[in-house]
Design a protein that fits this description.
Helix content is 20%, strand content 26%. Strand 2 and strand 3 form a beta hairpin. The chain has 2 helices and 4 strands, in the order E-H-E-E-H-E. The radius of gyration is 12 Å and the shape is globular. It has a domain of 50 residues. The termini are far apart. The chain is α+β, with helices and mostly antiparallel strands.
């Protein structure tokens, strides 16, 4: 099992969010989840690339989910909410 965290540049809206129903999504568009293996991680990154999204941070580890995720360098709430690019 691979623990994954992907930070994307800018928020994504509900239409794009539906493409990532296998991971949790946070306000700043942080995708987190447990994926089966490296192939699943590559599949997730392929979806990100195909949608033209830019990854600004990526962490993948074999540690269990009980480990804390790295904090965002820009930990704040975006009052404008998500939108499609």
């Amino acid at each position: 099992m691979k623990q994954v965290l992907v930070r994307l540049k800018g928020p994504i809206g509900p239409n794009m969010a539906a493409m990532f129903d296998d991971v949790d999504m946070h306000v700043e568009t942080v995708l987190t989840g447990e994926l089966m293996d490296d192939a699943a991680v590559h599949g997730l990154l392929t979806r990100v690339r195909d949608l033209g999204l830019r990854v600004v941070d990526l962490h993948v580890s074999d540690t269990p989910h009980s480990q804390p995720l790295p904090p965002s360098p820009h930990d704040r709430l975006d009052a404008t909410g998500p939108s499609d690019p």
